[in-house]
Amino acid sequence: MSKSSIANPGIKVVAQNRKARYDYEVLDTYEAGLVLSGTEVKSLRTAKLNLRDGYARVDGAELYLHNVHISPYLAATHFNHDPDRPKKLLLHRREISKLTEQTQQKGLTVVPLRVYFNVRGFAKVELALVRGKREYDKRQDIARRDADRSIQRALKEVG
Q1: Is residue 16 a part of any domain in this protein?
Q2: Is the pTM above the cut of 0.85?
Q3: How far is it, in rounded angstroms, from Cα 118 to Cα 123?
Q4: 116 part of a folded domain
């Protein structure tokens, strides 16, 4: 169970993109609604989702989520959804314009961090404005995490 669902027991996390925090430096986060069909929602409730290569892009005045695969719902008939279609994201106009300005800068992009159902049962996606990390930044993060673990282990043995 994730830390946020422990803090808020009404949230059901469907999928997390753990690789995003490793590959990118998170600058800002946003919560957006998802426009989904019925079979997509049913498939999400069974956690059939892949966020790994996903990204968000502004098309016109709307934000779309690309490369996020929601597997077809197995109990559906031939009216099933297209698993790789772009999903429309629901954000305020000022947030979309702010993201448009920021993603036009060199090296910034928008990626999904996690998909979850909120307390009211609506599917939400946590988006992050990110900048790619260099290889040495990744190594520093790993070294820092290992040092923190060894410190915590030493404190646990002493106390």
Answers
A1: yes
A2: no
A3: 7
A4: yes
